[in-house]
Amino acid sequence: MRTSNYEIMLLMNPEVEAEGRAEVLDRIKKIASDGKGSVENVDEWGKKRLAYEINHFQDAFYYVITLTATAAALNEITRILKITDEVLRFMPVALKEPVSSES
Length: 103
Known about the structure:
- By secondary structure, the chain is an alpha+beta fold.
- Helices cover 29% and strands 46% of the residues.
- It contains two helices and four strands, in the order βαββαβ.
- Helix 1 runs antiparallel to helix 2 (71-83).
């Protein structure tokens, strides 16, 4: 199975406690690792004002997740994020260059 590099922008419900947000992130990490990939970086931007209201919320917790995963693992991650109540929006994007943890 071939792994590719991805980045997922994730917006989570502002009323969810830190433990709930950590559970969602841990689930993403588990799916990626089960699919022979890994989460390289989770960049937490914190609670920010949304440009427009989503599900009656004006704020959200922003995360940028950089990972390597197979296409099947990414499909499973997107399926889980779609049905997770804590998630307001997400967008996976394929990266062309390799993921590196060095900046």
